[in-house]
Every structure is written in structure tokens, then in C-alpha cells.
């Protein structure tokens, strides 16, 4: 089992103008001091602008490994956003666990809450805009440094400085890296068998289950 993972920061954001007033976003997440309540809808105090693609039970909390920040500095330069946490709009920042070490369906203790990995994070144009036009979106897909989402199984409270502990891993073959590769990065084109087998992974987010079905249908 994975060792306890240090929780560097919990972050929340408010909806604000992003690319002009007509394009609001809450991607600008800031560290929260002290305890944060973890609710079914996500961290208390966090918001989303476009609820058709962000938030909801399957994407209540976004986790992005701080481990990737050094790679990003090499890839796009030493952008000011990379000096702290929250550059990728994450709610959870840690060091010591990345996409090939986390599986769909993993249950983790986050403070007194329990969260479950539901899907990888599918990047969008907002990352490019946030980084001043750098090709972050495409690089996320190509490098598979996606981060992932949790649904909240048990509500509770958490705070920075604690550790996250893995409680259960029912699908050890289905890492976030593997599933992201199949559903987002194009691996299904050469690995239909895995795409078919992915149907056994019942905790997979509903939107990604639909994407799998669409890819199978051609």
C-alpha cells in the first residue's frame, strides 16, 4: 500500500472574471488556513463557474501533485504561478504520489473525511489562458500529468500539514495514468481490449463511463 502522503495545502477559489466578464472562472485557488470542512459538494468555500463541466459529486475535489511543478518549469519556463501551490486550479496539493501511483476507486482518508478517486482531470483551454498562452493543455495530455478528482464518501474536516492515507484499493490495475491514456490521450486506438475491460471499474465517473461507451462505439 502507498505510504501516507503529506498534505501541503488545501485550496479554495471564488468565481471571478477570467477572460473578460463573460468568461468567469474559479480556477484561481488560494491556500486555506486552519480546518476546512469537506462536504459532498467539495471543500467548503470553494466554487465553480460552469457547473456543466466542473464540480458535481464525481468532481467534488481536484488533486494535483506538486511533484510535477519542477517538470513544468522545464517545459514552459519559471512562471510565477509555479512558485506556490494552486497553479492548476487544484484543491489538494501533495508531494509523494502521482498518476501512476493512484487508481480509480482508491479510497483515501483526508482529515476525518473519506474521498474516492473517480477520474483523471481532463484539461481545457483555461490552463493555457491562465499561463499566458503557454501550451499547458496539450502538454497535460501528452505528458499525462493530469491530476485527478475525488467524490466525497464521508464528510469531515481536514487541514494542511496532515497526511492523506490510502484506505482501500479495489482496482489496483487501473491507475489514473492508464485510464487517462485510454480515454483522453488516445491509447484506446491500439488497446481496445483494455477499453472493454475498463467496464469492470464501477467507481469510474459517469461522464468518463459515457466517454468509454462512445469510444467503443467508434
UniProtKB/TrEMBL annotation:
Residue ranges of domain MOSC in the record: 30-167
Entries under Pfam families matching the protein: MOSC
Transmembrane segments: none
Coiled-coil spans in chain: none
Cited InterPro entries: Benzoxazolinone_Detox_Enz (IPR052353), MoCF_Sase_C (IPR005302), Pyrv_Knase-like_insert_dom_sf (IPR011037)
Name the UniProt record assigns to this protein: MOSC domain-containing protein
Organismal lineage: Bacteria, Pseudomonadati, Pseudomonadota, Alphaproteobacteria, Sphingomonadales
